[in-house]
Amino acid sequence: MKYYKLLDDIDFPKRWYLDEIQGVDNWIFTRPGSLIPQDRFTINMDPKGKEMHFCTTDAFAVPIVSAKLKDILVDVPGLDFYPVEILGMKTVLKYYIMHIRNACECVDEKSSIFEKYKENDPVRPDKAGQYSGFVKLAVDTTKSYPSSLFRVKNANLMMIIDELTKEKVESELPNSGMLFIFVW
């Protein structure tokens, strides 16, 4: 099975940009297994642009999906969807926060090129031992994956999608705003 990093396509033509989700700690949506304290949310749009089926918020990279994309992904285990109202623009589509509940310790460290936060890191001492960035990400194919769309353990902002789910999205919604980068 092949895997891909799932990113927001920042070169999407005339795209919109979404601010953080209002009234809640946005980090809960990037932490696998977090309990979500409510079921309805609002978010501001800045600046005006074209609606997208997939994007992430500017500040916390929380994935926001259209109802059409939600319907494609609804059967993927480990995903929750929470309605979100986009403020500042009348939208044609309905939107949802996509919360990814699963994380996998899937990094093949021998084949990857990465850096980790160190103990006593001057900027983020709380993240000691977690990944701070990847030049090259290789996944360990011997690992048992919790889902076909999951986060990387100790690199919670990174989302991974398998080839079958990627192909399903591309065939049913070709201009979604999702960007797929192959990982080794």
Core attributes:
mainly beta, 6-stranded mixed β-sheet, 5-stranded mixed β-sheet, 9% helix, 36% strand
Overview of this structure, please?
By secondary structure, the protein is mainly beta. Helices cover 9% and strands 36% of the residues. The chain is built from 2 helices and 13 strands, in the order E-E-E-E-E-H-E-E-E-E-E-E-E-H-E. A 6-stranded mixed sheet has the order 2-3-6-7-5-4. A 5-stranded mixed sheet has the order 8-11-12-1-13. Strand 6 and strand 7 (95-100) form a beta hairpin. The longest helix has 10 residues, at 163-172. The chain is globular and about 50 Å long. It starts with a strand and ends with a strand. The mean pLDDT is 92.
Instruction: Quickly give the structural class.
Output: mainly beta
The count of strands amounts to: 13
Global mean pLDDT: 92
Measured as a percent range, the helix fraction is under 10%
Shape by Cα distribution: globular
Strand count, sense and closure of the main sheet? 6 strands, mixed
Q: What is the string of helix and strand elements?
A: EEEEEHEEEEEEEHE
Write down the Rg: 16 Å
Strand order of the largest sheet: 2-3-6-7-5-4
What is the terminal-to-terminal distance?
11 Å
Regions with little confidence, pLDDT below 50 for 5+ residues: none
Number of helices: 2
Strand percentage: 35-45%
How is this structure best summarized?
By secondary structure, this protein is mainly beta. The protein has helices at residues 67-73, 163-172; strands at 3-8, 18-21, 41-45, 54-56, 63-66, 79-87, 95-100, 103-104, 113-116, 131-136, 149-152, 155-162, 178-183. Strands 2-3-6-7-5-4 form a six-stranded mixed beta sheet. Strands 8-11-12-1-13 form a five-stranded mixed beta sheet. Strands 9-10 form a two-stranded antiparallel ribbon.
